[in-house]
């Protein structure tokens, strides 16, 4: 069943580097990460790679395989032709540390800018009541394993380093959407989404959704609904007028349903 | 060393705009081709101002026909009397802006026309990118208004489809020609496309945080969400039916063919 | 030589899984400055792998549930070798810890009336596991991670510095704990990214480093599971307890080879999945041990009725505690009734509609589809036992989680005691929360007690730690650490695995002596920046120490109980139940001593029928009186 495959692996650091050629044995049922491990054990013991669970649950082994952002542990070798040369590079949006390992601190910095979950102040632990239909939308986003492939793929930062200041990428806009749809959250994050996290940079070209290993519908279920909710508040004159009217006539159920 | 783009300082210096080995350019190239053809065709038809009514059918581009000098039978044929250009120009901007600001078409043209990006993990050729934060693209946030107008337009097109069940000469009910089927199919597809719209999804229920307190709107949201998953498909299908519906009327009105009649009273 | 990077904190938490993060939250809420040290990135810890849920007797689904029932289940599961005090605290405090997660933003699956839904799991009498589909561990770690971030935001508002009270050091490995006159003084380690060395000074350290899975070949554990905490604690002068008890999860993937060992959640069985052998027989009915006879269904019909009517039927034997199921599968495969890839069939496809499977077990569906190209809604899975969890661990005081070394605390998998000889599914996540919090509190109180300042760390201590960490670079053409590692894994798997005998374990100990010799000449290639060869060379020392402790304790305990099965001593012995096996490091070797268990408090003993107790306890331990 086994065969010898041709690999090109990018090796280097922030000073420079190049694709190096390797011939490696491949066995039935293996994934790209297995091959990288075999390289480490047999040919390149200091080949740097980040990984943990090897089951697509932790989101550590993000890289680009034949130019496509992927989890190496979820890329089966059987999807390639045995004659094909397989190229592995680090994620190209984040600074490289060494070989396949990149500095993903951008993501953690952005995570810290998202205003935290804020439940009603008088609600005691154990008294939280939420209907399943109300938590399902946010639950989808909480499937995120923070592999950061979406942020890596988004052209707004991938091709434009200077946008990193103003744009948090799909991962954290989705986090804002998650909190905005949380049934017991009391904070309106719509201004923050636009002003601090750059929702307007998103041109919904859906690459985040395409690369998501968890198959979360980031664009359709998080980003676009968030854009629509922002439009409700910031861009829709009629809606603003009608909510003023509801406030004035006391028909606004704001205290009971903090966000509609 | 590149100063920006995907080989910006600090990143792995790989030196290729993409390492993808698949034929990623097919999709944007196809989209570019089809959308360009559609725009060219539509512009020709809209500006031409003729061959849009062949009883009992009216072309989608010319309905509602708001100029007083509209062709006999194209409703409502008024009230604008001072218009001297093609009457289609009075209404064709509605579907145009609806489709232009549609969340699916935005993806399609940003990728295939702007190449921003041409495909995932393929570098875009631009040095600067500001997204939808400025004029004119920030106007895309008003998609919902184009949706409301599109709803009105769909009502009109539905009326047109219903009226296409009348005989061509004396407007008796009980007539089915090829055109009747085409107009009906077009109206149905346009409804699917319009109702599967992301703005519609937000309006019917998406903006609510507590579905459990609004069971009816939740139900509506669930239905629209199901349609929404196929929004891209309806966008393409309805694009095709619009062209087909117009072109069929054009062929009839210009006398190139005659309607094939399945049934008549 | 560059200046050594130095940090000073009130509390250092080593490990950023559920226990570590919960400990850090508690220490910070007690006003302490905390360093969280993780070997990988923040939020990637092994806790994400937990699937089933968090066991807590909230009684949301079955109102008969309460802490006493949970306590009983835990003791039964652990075959009464548990630290009864830990089991009591655990059962009492788990609901509060789960509700707390909701205040941090967790979104569990809900019951119809909006409460947290709870699911059935092996060994739990009532539906008890708070869960989110089958990604409960991810929810837990993300929630705690986001709580840490929210505390940092609070600190930022107060001080202008996000890291004024909590700083996360990711991709940093601790190689040594530093003590001064028998008290915790700090920790020494290196940044994985750069290879730069770091010194932390702190009066209190919480170990939350997880397990030892990587000493075994077939394991559900990731590379991080190298027994660091166990080894660090033993080397610093603390002790471990009952390291022989290792849980082999009955259902790991057996194919493809590259993912062998990766877990298939017990929820598959909790939600209706059944185990069959190559003859199509539902074999678990043949493996119900006497102690569980009254609690489990004896026919498939009764077992199936239980899913819908648990009050009037007994549960199916697929839901026996993990050790029983693992041994049963092992026996079936050995008897030649295994699947083509050496496991048994776990089938949910014939039991539930496809859309229900996808809804209830989304990540299992995903895992099999993507890794094995198997559609679990259409065909059965192939599964077999995999090394999953170590019940033994660092010996701690039950209320404060302090080890025998003042200032050193331990919580989570690295700590021993709660689970006795076998852990119930779902009790791990609750363990992390209950004892993570207690460890954070214990450490904070300790810091207050000693007045805040850390004992001195001398230049000599630093030089020694440095030399130890950098030693593999000084070896020219040394042995490849990967080779020794894979030999050690083979040895442990084959000789100290799921079924053990004296001669094999002696062979294993002899081999371990050989590895200890060879590891001195391990060399690494390349520089210090993100060099996995070097990392493994250092981790390997920890794994060897842990392996020796496991093998020695396993050799000593001459009975079969929970996660320790002796071919030569197949019975459970009430006398051995009174014995804890304690390991300490003498520098070169592991020294083992016996230590009596403390007798269970009377009111807790009263929660059981005497007839049940008599299966586990000696005559003299049984309660006297009217029972």
Structure commentary:
The complex is a heterotrimer of chains A (260), B (265) and C (627). Chain A is α+β, with helices and mostly antiparallel strands and 260 residues long. Chain A has 2 domains: 3-102, Ubiquitin-like (UB roll) (Roll), CATH 3.10.20.30; 105-249, Fumarate Reductase Iron-sulfur Protein, Chain B, domain 2 (Orthogonal Bundle). Helix content of chain A is 35%, strand content 15%. Chain A has helices at 32-42, 105-111, 132-141, 149-153, 155-158, 169-180, 190-195, 207-211, 218-235, 237-249, and strands spanning 3-13, 16-26, 62-65, 68-71, 85-89, 96-98, 101-102. In chain A, strand 6 and strand 7 (101-102) form a beta hairpin. In chain A, helix 6 packs across helix 9. The longest helix of chain A has 18 residues, at 218-235. Chain A is elongated and about 75 Å long. Chain B has 265 residues and is mainly α. Chain B has one domain (26-124, 132-263). Helices cover 48% and strands 7% of the residues of chain B. In chain B, a hairpin with a 2-residue loop joins strand 1 (53-54) and strand 2 (57-58). Chain B is globular and about 75 Å long. Chain C has helices spanning 18-29, 67-77, 84-104, 136-159, 228-236, 267-270, 300-308, 322-334, 354-360, 362-372, 427-450, 459-470, 481-495, 502-519, 532-556, 574-577, 602-605, 610-616; strands at residues 5-8, 11-14, 34-37, 54-55, 118-119, 129-130, 166-169, 172-180, 183-191, 197-201, 204-207, 240-241, 246-253, 274-276, 344-347, 381-390, 393-394, 408-410, 579-585, 590-596. In chain C, helix 3 (84-104) packs across helix 11 (427-450), helix 9 packs across helix 10 and helix 14 (502-519) packs antiparallel against helix 15. The radius of gyration of chain C is 23 Å and the shape is globular. The mean pLDDT of chain C is 94. Classes of the chains: A alpha+beta (260), B mainly alpha (265), C alpha/beta (627). Chains in contact: A-B, A-C.
Topology diagram in text:
The complex is a heterotrimer of chains A (260), B (265) and C (627).
Chain A: E1 3-13, E2 16-26, H1 32-42, E3 62-65, E4 68-71, E5 85-89, E6 96-98, E7 101-102, H2 105-111, H3 132-141, H4 149-153, H5 155-158, H6 169-180, H7 190-195, H8 207-211, H9 218-235, H10 237-249
Parallel strand pairs in A: 1-5
Antiparallel strand pairs in A: 1-2, 3-4, 3-5, 6-7
Chain B: H1 26-48, E1 53-54, E2 57-58, E3 65-67, E4 76-80, H2 93-100, H3 103-112, H4 143-163, E5 175-177, H5 178-195, H6 198-206, H7 215-228, H8 231-253, E6 261-264
Parallel strand pairs in B: 3-4
Antiparallel strand pairs in B: 1-2, 5-6
Chain C: E1 5-8, E2 11-14, H1 18-29, E3 34-37, E4 54-55, H2 67-77, H3 84-104, E5 118-119, E6 129-130, H4 136-159, E7 166-169, E8 172-180, E9 183-191, E10 197-201, E11 204-207, H5 228-236, E12 240-241, E13 246-253, H6 267-270, E14 274-276, H7 300-308, H8 322-334, E15 344-347, H9 354-360, H10 362-372, E16 381-390, E17 393-394, E18 408-410, H11 427-450, H12 459-470, H13 481-495, H14 502-519, H15 532-556, H16 574-577, E19 579-585, E20 590-596, H17 602-605, H18 610-616
Parallel strand pairs in C: 1-10, 2-3, 2-11, 3-7, 11-18
Antiparallel strand pairs in C: 4-6, 5-6, 8-9, 9-10, 12-17, 12-19, 13-16, 14-15, 15-16, 19-20
């Amino acid at each position: 069943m086994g065969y010898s495959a041709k690999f090109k692996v990018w090796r280097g650091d922030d000073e420079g580097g190049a694709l190096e050629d390797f011939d490696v044995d491949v066995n039935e049922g293996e994934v790209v990460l297995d091959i990288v491990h075999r390289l480490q054990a047999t040919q390149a013991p200091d080949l740097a790679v980040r990984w943990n669970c090897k089951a697509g649950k932790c989101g550590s082994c993000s890289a680009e395989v034949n130019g496509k952002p992927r989890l190496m542990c979820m890329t089966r070798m059987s999807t390639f032709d045995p004659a094909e040369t397989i190229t592995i590079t680090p994620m190209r949006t984040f600074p490289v540390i060494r070989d396949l390992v990149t500095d993903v601190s951008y993501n953690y910095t952005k995570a810290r800018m998202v205003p935290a979950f804020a439940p009603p102040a008088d609600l005691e632990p154990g008294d939280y009541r939420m209907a399943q239909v109300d938590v399902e939308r946010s639950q989808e986003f909480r499937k995120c394993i923070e592999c950061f492939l979406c942020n890596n793929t988004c052209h707004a930062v991938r091709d434009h380093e200077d946008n990193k200041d103003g744009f948090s990428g799909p991962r954290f806009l989705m986090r804002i959407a998650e909190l905005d749809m949380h049934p017991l959250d009391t904070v309106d994050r719509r201004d923050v989404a636009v002003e601090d996290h750059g929702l307007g940079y998103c041109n919904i070209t859906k690459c985040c959704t395409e690369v998501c290993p968890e198959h979360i519908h980031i664009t359709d279920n998080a980003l676009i609904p968030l854009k629509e909710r922002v439009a409700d508040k910031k861009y829709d004159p009629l809606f603003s007028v009608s909510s003023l009217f509801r406030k004035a006539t006391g028909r606004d159920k704001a205290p009971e349903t903090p966000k509609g | 060393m590149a100063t920006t783009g995907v080989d910006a300082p600090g990143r792995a210096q790989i030196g290729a705009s993409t390492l993808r080995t698949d034929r990623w350019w097919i999709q944007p190239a196809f989209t570019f081709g089809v959308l360009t053809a559609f725009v060219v065709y539509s512009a020709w038809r809209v500006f031409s101002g003729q061959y849009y009514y062949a009883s009992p059918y009216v072309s989608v581009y010319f309905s509602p026909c708001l100029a007083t000098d509209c062709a006999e039978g194209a409703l409502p044929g008024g009230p604008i009397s001072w218009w001297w250009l093609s009457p289609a120009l009075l209404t064709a901007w509605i579907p145009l802006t609806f489709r232009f600001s549609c969340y699916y078409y935005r993806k399609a043209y940003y990728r295939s026309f702007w190449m921003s990006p041409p495909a995932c993990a393929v570098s875009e050729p631009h040095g600067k990118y500001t997204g939808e934060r400025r004029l004119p693209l920030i106007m895309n946030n008003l998609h919902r208004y184009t949706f409301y107008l599109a709803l009105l337009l769909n009502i009109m097109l539905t009326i047109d489809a219903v009226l296409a069940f009348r005989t061509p000469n004396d407007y008796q009910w009980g007539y089915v020609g090829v055109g009747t089927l085409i107009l009906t199919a077009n109206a149905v597809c346009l409804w699917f496309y319009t109702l599967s719209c992301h703005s519609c999804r937000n309006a019917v229920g998406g903006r609510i945080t507590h579905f459990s307190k609004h069971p009816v709107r939740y139900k509506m949201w669930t239905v629209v969400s199901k349609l929404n998953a196929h929004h891209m498909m309806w966008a393409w299908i309805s694009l095709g039916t619009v062209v087909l519906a117009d072109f069929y009327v054009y062929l009839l009105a210009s006398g190139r063919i005659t309607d094939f009649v399945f049934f008549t009273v | 030589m560059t200046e050594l990077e130095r940090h000073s904190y009130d509390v250092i938490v080593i490990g950023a899984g559920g226990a570590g993060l919960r400990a850090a939250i508690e220490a910070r809420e007690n006003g302490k400055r905390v360093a969280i040290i993780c070997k990988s990135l923040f939020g990637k810890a092994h806790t994400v792998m937990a699937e089933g849920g968090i066991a807590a007797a909230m009684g949301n689904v079955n109102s008969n549930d309460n802490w006493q029932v949970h306590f009983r289940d835990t003791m039964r599961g652990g075959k009464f070798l548990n630290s009864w005090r830990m089991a009591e605290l655990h059962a009492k405090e788990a609901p509060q810890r789960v509700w707390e997660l909701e205040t941090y933003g967790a979104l569990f699956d809900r019951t119809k009336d909006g409460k947290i839904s709870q699911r059935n799991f092996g060994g739990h009498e009532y539906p008890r596991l708070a869960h989110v589909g089958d990604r409960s561990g991810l929810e837990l770690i993300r929630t705690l991670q986001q709580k840490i971030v929210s505390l940092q935001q609070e600190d930022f508002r107060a001080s202008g510095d996000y890291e004024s009270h909590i700083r996360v050091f990711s991709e940093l490995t601790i190689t040594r704990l530093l003590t001064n006159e028998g008290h915790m003084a700090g920790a020494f380690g290196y940044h994985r990214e750069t290879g730069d060395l770091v010194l932390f000074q702190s009066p209190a350290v919480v170990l939350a480093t997880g397990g030892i899975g990587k000493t075994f070949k077939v394991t559900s554990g990731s590379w991080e599971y190298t027994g660091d905490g166990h080894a660090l604690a033993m080397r610093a002068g603390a002790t471990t307890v009952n390291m022989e008890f290792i849980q082999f999860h009955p259902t790991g993937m057996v194919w493809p080879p590259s993912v062998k060992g990766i877990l298939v959640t017990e929820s598959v069985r909790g939600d209706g999945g059944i185990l069959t052998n190559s003859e199509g027989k539902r074999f678990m009915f043949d493996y119900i041990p006497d102690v569980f006879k009254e609690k489990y269904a004896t026919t498939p019909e009764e077992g199936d009725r239980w899913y819908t009517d648990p009050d009037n039927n007994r549960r199916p034997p697929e839901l026996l505690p993990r050790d029983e199921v693992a041994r049963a599968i092992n026996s079936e495969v050995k008897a030649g009734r295994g699947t083509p890839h050496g496991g048994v069939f776990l089938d949910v496809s014939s039991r539930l509609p496809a859309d229900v499977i996808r809804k209830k077990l989304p990540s299992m569906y995903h895992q099999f589809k993507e890794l094995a190209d198997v559609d679990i809604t259409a065909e059965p899975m192939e599964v077999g036992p995999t090394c999953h969890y170590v019940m033994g661990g660092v010996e701690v005081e039950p209320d404060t989680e302090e080890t025998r070394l003042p200032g050193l605390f331990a919580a989570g998998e690295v700590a021993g005691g709660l689970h006795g000889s076998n852990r119930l599914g779902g009790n791990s996540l609750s363990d992390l929360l209950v004892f993570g919090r207690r460890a954070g509190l214990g450490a904070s109180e300790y810091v207050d007690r000693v007045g805040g300042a850390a004992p001195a760390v001398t230049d000599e201590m630093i030089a020694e730690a440095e030399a130890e960490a950098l030693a593999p670079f000084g070896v020219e053409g040394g042995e490849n650490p990967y080779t020794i590692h894979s030999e050690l894994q083979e040895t442990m798997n084959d000789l100290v695995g799921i079924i053990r005998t004296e001669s094999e374990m002696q062979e294993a100990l002899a081999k371990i002596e050989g590895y200890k010799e060879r590891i001195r000449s391990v060399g690494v290639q390349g520089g210090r920046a993100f060099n996995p060869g070097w990392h493994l060379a250092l981790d390997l020392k920890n794994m060897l120490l842990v392996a020796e402790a496991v093998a020695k304790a396993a050799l000593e305990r001459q009975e079969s109980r929970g996660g320790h099965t002796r071919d030569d001593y197949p019975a459970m012995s009430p006398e051995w139940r009174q014995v804890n096996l304690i390991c300490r490091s003498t520098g070169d070797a592991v020294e083992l001593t016996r230590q009596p268990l403390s007798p269970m408090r009377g009111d807790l003993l009263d929660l059981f029928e005497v007839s049940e107790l008599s299966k586990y306890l000696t005559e003299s331990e049984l309660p006297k009186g009217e029972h």
